[in-house]
Design a protein that fits this description.
Two copies of one chain form a homodimer. Chain A is of the alpha/beta class. Chain A contains 13 helices and eleven strands. In chain A, helix 6 crosses helix 8 and helix 10 packs across helix 13.
Chain lengths: 361, 361
């Protein structure tokens, strides 16, 4: 087992990464405050892992909230089902919420923890690659609104993140690939050595080689933890973690939540960001080709859905959380392995990228 | 104009109290960050004050969310209408939310500010006595759940509180009285001199004597600010601000949100807390008679609704946010002017109070 620490002063917490961690109840129980636990999971994960977690936590008389599976259920309305379960079971402020599932479950359970009785403790137990390398770490919680992804939420840190890499054995291929999008992201924004490592080991990752996956998860979490420690509430550098996300959120919202997986939309969005960076003279054609090739090898989309018009794209992008004073701020690459935040993209160049991304074969 | 300061380190903010403050736009504009404002108000307050506030803030291109009036609308569903308005108007993270109205509006607008794009600034402009003396100060925000009052929310402080005492001229008598319940509360929990002052000046307050109201508001806000500064997130002493609220929330929830005003339920709840304190030997019969008399003079209820059974009361009280490990914690009075928090009330004594409160004439 590897242990990383996310350093946030009083709100610091450990990230445990390893095989078989779901068989070690002390990794959860050390972080449970109070006498009660509520486990939030979904209909896909529950048959696989809920029984085991419930058994470990039996003495905390666990309440369960089992939500439908999918981004389209990441809504205020479904969030309310968690509150229903907590209140029907008379859970008090000393209840610890355990998020058992992927990014949607982690975001919703975390937001429920942030707001139930104005805040209760929670623990992240991510079971998808995407949530293990990205969404379970860093305290972003929330739900979607029909007009925009993650528009309602809070920064609220877990007490611990417990990553059992064995849970990836039950992950569908499509979701494994979606997680790899966020893994590749870390290489692109701040870790060129990791990007090269991914080029060398993508086949092992796709074959679910445990050692390769553990390495990728650890390096991803380390990158994420360093960025979040430097800027918890996204006042500055943390924005770089959104590479590809402004384009990606537009795709997810525009196509209807759940049609594209988050990681798929981010993958296409990163290719668009790379294309735009090249048009601005920051990346070479060779860089873009490498990025595109790695994303394709990860079995991820490298083009945007042609049915989304450029006008729709720009309209959807204009509600992005990074917009300031009407200007879209984008995370781009000034080099392969170095992100930059800019609000100075000439509209004509953005139009070229939108046209190219939707036309590319 | 009087200015109080709520001292919370980096999150400190001023509370302005006086006549004619809605005619002083600088009290708002000094606290607006960014180029955009969203005003949240309700259908009752909008015709009275929205035009004036909108005119002052015209250069911020204000978005408006006008909600239905009443505690029964303090729900996640109605909250979503604020998000709809913000997103339809493409409000970004630099948008400042202005809460213009009573406690329901302040709580909902504040929670929307806490969670829109994971947090935007907000300003409280309370227009009811209850919100001016209590709910606008201290950062408690949230909405109700069918199973419990204020069960979903956040601690989130405003940038400023602007109390124009002239707005009380349009307040219905019933709501003026409801506000006086929270005013009396401060005397009971920590300010016996204020309690005596209220006994001497209740007639002036009911006659809406501006000087008396201003004095009552200032002394109430000063008490509130001192308690909140000592314990922002209700880990300890702040709990005393809930005198009468455990009983009161049970009445509000049990009778259906909106049937009893919050202040009315708190008034009856404070009489119950006083009765229980006497049964425990802490208050004299004379103390209880004084408390009851002052609350009656404020035209507030001094008994609980007889149709709520004792069993319903206890069931509703068991989801109170102060419950710990299955034990109801109550704020009681160890003397007139001194609150105490206890989890050690013998069930039989609580039953006596519940029986007496529902039978009393």
């Amino acid at each position: 087992m590897k242990t990383l620490e996310l350093d946030l002063g009083e709100r610091s917490y450990p990230i445990y990464i390893g095989s078989g961690l779901l068989a070690r109840p002390e990794l959860l129980t050390s972080y449970i405050h109070g006498a009660r636990v509520a486990i939030v999971t979904n209909e896909t994960v529950a048959p696989l892992y809920l029984g085991r977690v419930r058994a470990h936590l039996a003495r905390y008389n666990p309440v369960e909230a089992i939500l439908p599976d999918g981004e389209q259920y990441k809504t205020l309305e479904v969030l309310n089902r968690i509150f229903d379960a907590l209140l029907q079971n008379r859970c008090d402020r000393q209840t610890t919420i355990v998020a058992l599932g992927g990014g949607v479950i982690g975001d919703m359970a975390g937001f429920a923890a942030a707001t139930y009785q104005r805040g209760v403790p929670f623990i992240q137990v991510p079971t998808t690659l995407l949530s293990q390398v990205d969404s379970s770490v860093g305290g972003k919680t929330g739900v979607n609104h029909p007009l925009g992804k993650n528009m309602i939420g809070a920064f609220y840190q877990p007490r611990a993140v417990v990553i059992d890499t064995d849970t990836l054995n039950t992950l569908p291929d499509r979701e494994l690939s979606a997680g790899l999008a966020e893994v590749i992201k870390y290489g692109l924004i701040r870790d060129p050595g990791f990007f090269a490592w991914l080029e060398a080991h993508m086949d092992r990752l796709l074959a679910r080689d445990p050692a390769a996956l553990a390495e990728a998860i650890e390096r991803s979490c380390r990158n994420k933890a360093e960025v979040v420690a430097a800027d918890e509430c996204e006042a500055g550098v943390r924005v770089i973690l959104n590479l590809g996300h402004t384009f990606g959120h537009a795709i997810e919202t525009g196509m209807g939540y759940g049609a594209w997986l988050h990681g798929e939309a981010v993958a296409a969005g990163m290719v668009m960001a790379a294309d735009l960076s090249r048009r601005l003279g920051w990346l070479t054609e060779h860089d873009v080709a490498r990025i595109r090739a790695l994303i394709e090898r990860a079995r991820l989309p490298v083009q945007a859905p042609p049915m989304l018009t450029a006008a729709q794209f720009k309209s959807l992008m204009s509600v992005d959380k990074k917009v300031q004073a009407g200007k879209i701020r984008l995370v781009l690459l000034e080099a392969l392995g170095k992100a930059v935040i800019t609000a100075e993209v000439p509209p004509a160049v953005l139009d070229e990228t939108l046209a190219a991304a939707r036309a590319a074969a």
